[in-house]
Structure formats: C-alpha cells, structure tokens
Amino acid sequence: MENCFEARFVGRKDELRDLQAAWNKKFKMFGIFGMRSVGTSRLAKEFLASVSDQYEELVYVNLKKTSDLAAMYVNICAQLTIAVESNPNDDKSWESMLVYTVSTRTKQYVFCFDNGEYFIDMAKTHDPLQNLCIALIKLNNVNVILTSTTKFQLERLRHIYHVCELQPLKPTETSELLRAEAPGLDYGKYMDPIVELSEGLPLLILMITSELRDDGGMLTPHDMAQLLAEYRLKVLSREFYPEEERVADVYRLFINRLSPVLQRRFSELDYIPGSFTAEEARSLLDYPTEAVVKDHVLVPKLRGHFISFDPANRRFNIQGILRESLKTCFALRHIPEIRKRFCKTFTKVMTSISRRFTSQDYASALADFAFEQPNLQKLLLEIQYTTQDTYTFFIRMATESAVFIEQYLAGNSEDFYSQCHRAADRYGNEMDKAVVDLAVGSLYTNIKADLKAGYTKYSAALSILKGAGKSLQLATAHQRIGYNLMLQDQNDHAINHLKCSLAISLVSGKPFELIALQALNNMGSTLTKLGAFEEAEKYNFVSLKRRRKIQGENHPDVGMTLNNIGIMYDQKGDIRLALKYFQEALDIKKNSKAPDLSLVASLTNVANVYLAVEKFDEALNALDEAERILSKQRFPQVHLIAYLNDTRGKLYFEQGNMDKAAEMFENAVRGRDKVASGKTTHVESLVHMMKVAVKKGDTFKCIKTGKTVLSFRNDLIKQRPKSRFLTECFDCLAKVYEIMGDDVKVRDTLRKIKIELLRLEYLYTCDCNEDMVSEIRQQLEDIECRLKALPHTNDDVTNTNTVI
C-alpha cells in the first residue's frame, strides 16, 4: 500500500482493536472512513499487518490511480494472474468472471480498495463497485477492506460489515507523533499551540515535523507556532514538495471534487465562523426547509467527511483546514446578499438567547451561547458594513439584546454601539438613537465604571424618550439613570428616577415586569445606602416575592435579589442575617446554573462577610472557588479578577501576611487601572496598598501611592460623593508622617481629614441618615483628640483654615 509519508504508527489503538475483534467474529467487510489525510490508508495497512497470518494473498487497488472500471478489473486480474484474452463487454461480465475464478481457488484473499471516494462519488462507478464488494464477500475465501472519505452505505449487510469512522488524532497522540518525527527537539511551551494547529491530521503533523527537521533546524518551535497561526496553509504547501504532500493542493483537490453548486454552498456556509444548526444553514443558504438543506447539502457531505456533526447538540461544522482552503482557493460571490442573510439569521439567534437569558430558560440560553459565541461576535462586527437592508437587524439587537451584549460580548460592544449611532444618522430616527444611547450608557455604567459618561448617555436618551409618551424604553431610561445615580451616591435624585420608572412599569403589564423588578431592587439598594433600612427592607422583599412568582424559586435573579438583601443586612450591621442571605443566594445561583460571573460576585460577598467575622478558612474557600470559576473563562474578566485579588489581599492583611497582601493589592490595582483608572474601585485598591505600606513602615511607598489617590480626588468626589477613601488615604498619610516624626505634616493631614469628614457629615445630614451622621461625628471627635495631642506651633491659627 502506498503512503506519501511512512511515519511511525501512533494512536488508533481503539480502532485497531475493534477492527481485529470484528475480524475474529468473522466479519467479511471492513469500511474505514474519515476526512482527507486523516490516516485511513495507514490504519488499513496496520490492520492488514496485524492479521497477515490469517490470509494468503492481498489484492490492493488504489482507486485514486485507476481511471475506470475496466482498468480496475485489469489491475485485479493482473494481480491474480488471471488471463484476459479479450475485455468483457460490460461490468457484470467482468464481475462474474472475477468472482467465479476466485471462488474456484483455495487461497484466502483480502481485497483492499483504497481511496474509494474516487469511485463511490461517481454515479457510473458507485453501483458497480458496491456490487463487486457484495459479490466478493459472499465467497468463503474473501474479505474486503475499503478506505474512503465518503461513507459506503451497506445497511442490509451490517451483520458482516464493520464500519470504522476515523477521527483526527487525540492531542496526546498528536504530541507523540510530533516527538517521534522530530526526535530530540524541545517543543517547550509551543507544543500545545502546534498540537492545536495541526488539528490531529497526520498529513499536517508530518509536514510540520518535516519543516522543523529541514535546514538544520532553522525554524524553531516558536517560529512554527507563529507561522502556523498566521500562514498555516502556505507554510505546509511549499512548492518544492510533491503535489500529493502539499496541504493546500491536497484539500483544494478534495474540494474540487464537489459540484460547482456545492462548492458555492460551502463557501457561503464558511461565512459562519463557528458551528451551526440545520436551521441556521437553511436560513443562510435560503433553502425552503431544514429537510431540504439536510438532503441537498449537509447529509451528503457529512457522509463524505467534508463536515462534522455533533449529535448531542445537533450542530454541524466545517473542519478547520477545509475552511482555510475554501477561503484561499474559492472566492465567495454575492457577498452583500450573504451578509444580509447572515445578519438576519443570527439576529434571530441573538434575540432568542437574550430573551431566554432573562427567563426560566436561561440555562439553555447559556448553553446555546457557548456554541454561538464566535457567530455572535462576528455579527456585531458586521455593523461596519451596514446598509438600509441590514440596519433594522442591528437596531433590533440594540433594543432587545443590550443587556446580554453588555455582559457577554463586551469586547465588541463599544465599537458596535458607536457604529449603530452613526448608522442611525443615515437610516434611522431619533428613537433609534435613544435606544443606542441607553445601551452605551449601560456599557459605561456597568462595565467601564465611567458613571459620568454613563449618566450623559442615559440623559441623552431620556431627553428624546420624554417626548414620545410612556413606553418600555422610557421606564428603562428612568430605571438605569436611577441605578447610575445610586452608584454616584446621588441617592435622592436616584429615588426620583426610580419612582418614575415604577410609576410606568408597575401598571403597564407583562412586557414591563423585568424593568419593574429591577427598579424595585434599585430602590432597595438606594434606601440601604441612605440607611433607611425599614423602607429598604420593604422594597427588597416585595421584589423577592414578585421575582419568585414570575421567575420561579430557583432562578439566578432570585439569587441576585437575596444577595441585595444580604448587602442590606451587612450595611445594617447584622452580620448573621447578611451571611444567611448571601449563602442562600449562592445556593440558588449554583442550583440554577447561574452565569459564572454572577457566582463569582456571590462567592466574593460571602468571603467578605466571613472576613468581617474573622472566619478566614471559610473566606479562603469561597475565594478559591471563585478563582477556579474565573480561571475557566475563555475571555479574562479583568474587573472580576481584580475584585477577587483585592478581597484576597484583605484576607492576607487581616491574617498579618503583609507581603502577600501587598502582592494581591498590587495585582488588583493593575487590573482596575486597566478598566477603571481613577474610578472608585481603582482608588479602593490604592488605599489598601497604602494601609499595607503603613504596616510595613514603607513611608516612601505610602506617600507615593497617596499622591496618586489625591490626583483623582476631584473626579472621585464627582463620581462617588460619599466615598470614604479620601479620609482613609489621609489617615494613612498621617500615620506615616507620625513614623517620620513630622508633626507639621501630621497636623495638616489631620485637618484635611476633618474637612473631608465635615463634607460627608453635611451630605448624610441632607439624607437624614442619622446612623452615618453619628458615626462621622465620633470620628470628628477622635480627630480633635489627635490634634490636641500634637505639640502646638505658631502656625496653628493660620493652619486652621487650610484649604486642600
């Protein structure tokens, strides 16, 4: 049997064992099928070698090099030394002559038909080959082996016909073959990317190792990993290799065997970057029904190993190297029409997933998103090609799927909405702009932590929506502005907007239910911040009751509401109840398979409560679990990783491990600086770094970090007027100045704390938050005591009015 590369035989233990078991059970025919260059011929050779003592003569026919049926029969007759005085007139005559001759002999034969697709895929040769195989296996002294990329269907003979579907090599087998073919080469950290890019296909693996061996190892594994990632088809198709070894030529010829219609159809399907369902294929290819697209396109080429099928999830895919070959060798025609169908198809998918994401079907929505993610990411990028025909799809996504895009496709979202806004200028109206502004405001508020920019976008949307009467968008605008203002500590204004949202949503029926629930939650959180715990309790528990009625007992959003109740009790100082509700929230989220990021938030809240009661082991367990979840995310969630590092830093700080605390806080600062430089979370971690520096006596580090914090002072006060981080910053500075013995700077810093506390006292007095006012006044008394304890100077009078 021929093979371009006679490499070491690796893997295939299960397949070889199954073939041998079928042989021992007296199966007569063995079909070995798989995609081009997956190793069907090599497996057949190894199989024949393993049973070589059980047959006497092999008749090998390479159908790739056989021009027609007559040539095939002449070849077989030559191997069997059958004299052919004159060619029979038809296929049946050839078959009868051959079968009769073999039946009269006592030898045990194996007929191996290699590369069977060259006859199976042709109408005039398919049936004669099939008939010959059936006739041969009826003989007691014959077994038949057939290798092919196209599956040979013989259902009525399945009791004596063993079918082996050959898949690409497993990663461990791929690594073994790479090492065997380039012995002594240290792949290092580049083994995994090379394994992935070889796709488990022996031809690709052997071409890769050939490149690595040639020219004295001029190309290193690092070079190869980079070249494969950027120019795989070109690198493995050098012109000095024989045509049958060039990867591009092998797969181009494979695709060329398709009809022009199917070549075009698969080029169009390649426009979908990920796997796809039959319905998505139907929609993109504009077939009338799923049944038709399966019958005409998907099933025939599934049997031809051109596409793969995942039966558990009912999804199809085009194999990676074939995708590259389609893009390189076969131009896609009618791109605007294909793009329109793609946008139509996957806008429907996006809205379906986002709608189910907020219902009891959220688990199936997230499961679908795991497959659809590359398709939906591409969908957002299609906005750059917007036309009048596709504009409606994008504005629909901005209207119906904004929350889902914000949470799961944030990397592409800002550019998407920016392009939407420009498209609205060309094709839309003012209401469309309002919808886009709402989405962008949410992105700035929830992901980028730029509350002022978020508020500006929300306000722009509200100014448009006010003129159009009561609507879901108007209720949404008020709810989101209320939430944004709550985060800015502008609680009275927040409550006014939340009341406006509730006034619309509570009386407007089912479509408004989710906005009403969100507004109720936000009211509870805002009142918690004001210290109005009785009112907060009322709103939180009304929200909980309504959520359970609408969404069921076991829904992630029920867990989210319980989490908010936990925060309320934590703020109230009732640690026992806070932990109870945090834990209940976490249990519901776990049981309901809530989104991973929601679980991480709950686990971190639980950890913080355990820290408050000095249960460090329990806190560490919660943080470790959260970190395990985050480590599995395909796209790093920088803000959550930073939140986790900051909480872990607090744990080490409380345990007295200042070196580890410093490391965690520095990691948190780097992460928060990337996503929210100068915002509250970033400043929080900077202040934590200062506290560690104070403990370690690192006065230089504390002062330097303090200057960074104070550079954000004005923006911090605008973003979060009631933030306590400025007083904590000044307190750290006062302590290091005490260490340094600089009484003048200590006094000046304490006075700055006093001014900051007076500002906070005024704000909380306006909110009627007596608990906070009382706490701040106690702190003011403490500052006065510290000031009196300092030595007096001649500057005391003038310094009393120090302005920061």
From TrEMBL:
Superkingdom per UniProt: Eukaryota
Any matching Pfam family: TPR_12
Repeat region (TPR), residues: 559-592, 642-675
GO MF term (any one): ADP binding
Keyword list, A-Z: Repeat, TPR repeat
Gene3D superfamilies named among the record's database cross-references: P-loop containing nucleotide triphosphate hydrolases, Tetratricopeptide repeat domain
PROSITE patterns: TPR
Protein name per its UniProtKB record: Uncharacterized protein
Organism per entry: Dreissena polymorpha (Zebra mussel)
Lineage, opening ranks: Eukaryota, Metazoa, Spiralia, Lophotrochozoa, Mollusca
